Amino acid sequence: MLLAQILGLYFMIIGVVVLYRRRAVMPAVSRLVANRPLLLVIGLMEILGGIAIVLTYPMFTLDASGLISLIGLVLLIEGIVYFALPSRKVQRFVRRFNTPSWYGAGGLLSLIMGVYLAGSGFGLF
User: Fold this and answer.
1) DSSP string, 26-44
2) Is the pLDDT score of 1 beyond 90?
3) What is the rounded distance in angstroms from the CA atom of residue 107 to the CA atom of residue 113?
4) Which strand (E) or helix (H) includes residue 96?
5) Greatest CA separation for the chain
6) I need a labelling partner for 31 at 20 to 30 A (CA). Which of 43, 73, 82, 92 fits?
7) For residue 125, what pLDDT band results from cuts at 50, 70 and 90?
């Protein structure tokens, strides 16, 4: 479960950083979605990563493998949205969720998912 270890540690780090520095992350995300070429590159990378994960973990189950499948599907959908939708629609969508309360909830969810995935991947659960 190498991917569970990698994604678990990644989500734990991201969750802590977002919870601790959400007011610094929010303007960076706003500037990111305003940069269309960068958004297209990120969208292409998310599509590639999402396809790789979905093909590797095609089953949705109620364990770490299912969570990894869900992460892959979310990456794929987000990448398609970033790549296919007009820039203004992406900016409007991100602006709706670019608030401290959403970052708090997302950071906490990321931390919980990270602990679960890392624990599963390293054999602690």
Assistant:
1) HHHHHHHHH-HHHHHHHHH
2) no
3) 10
4) helix 87-97
5) 44
6) 73
7) confident
